[in-house]
Amino acid sequence: MNTLMLQQQSLLDALFARPGSPRATGAPHHLHTRLETHASRGFMAYQANGHALAERSLMAAYPVIAQLIGRDNFNALARDLWHSEPPRCGDLAQWGDALPVFLANSEQLAEVPYLPDVAQVEWALHRAAGAPDAEPDMASFARLSSEDPESLTLRLAPGTALIPSAWPVVSLVTAHTTGEPTLAEAGQRVRDRVGETAVVWRQGWRPCVAACPANALGLLPALLRGAALTDALGQVPADFDFSDWLTQAVHSGLVLGVANTSPQTLNTPHTEDNP
What we know:
Elements (H helix, E strand, L loop, with lengths): L2 H14 L5 H11 L4 H25 L1 H7 L1 H14 L14 H6 L10 H15 L22 E5 L4 E5 L3 H9 L5 H9 L4 E8 L2 E6 L7 H6 L4 H5 L8 H11 L2 E6 L15
Helix pairs in contact: 1-2, 1-3, 3-5, 4-5, 4-7, 7-8, 8-9
């Protein structure tokens, strides 16, 4: 390894290697023997800010997780994730996607088993906030009464995602963000092991989350796959009121219009798997 490559690797080790590890303890020696004094001081200042950046960045994406485990524990978690899963690009808003799996593998947090699923919902909301813009096409709904439904599908809002869970993940998130339900009610649902499937989408500029109705659990995954309406409606109970569901979905901004089932117009599938 040449000198430049060794310096680069030592810098990365010093910034991101877990404190106390051989990589972390060896990095300063390699750096200080190669860097000028003023450059070394600049590096140390950047290193000191690394953990603060990790805490702020993760807090922006996971405010509910922070409330559930407490700010001090969350900051320690952010620092640990910073060293275990360092950023892969310069935009720290893209960092933190590994937290659900990290939580699922944490022995210390095993007694709070719903945290990974809550984190999945929060990351889906974070992603939805940065999803591409899309305008509703209200005129396209007329196609439902004039064209073959086998050639049509519904166009869903940017960032739409489904997160199935054995825990009341929507209740836990919204109890902390909107106050509905109350924290006491959300806690009771946890004790009762009430499972919820979260639907995440973006309405205008606002990321939204709601519990998927039980009778629509087969419909939304099919629409996310870009299935034709006839196929998607084949996944719901016989008494499913499609007209009522569609009215609510359009009003909430979940459904933006009607589209052909061609590859160019299919929705991008985004159903989260549990860690």
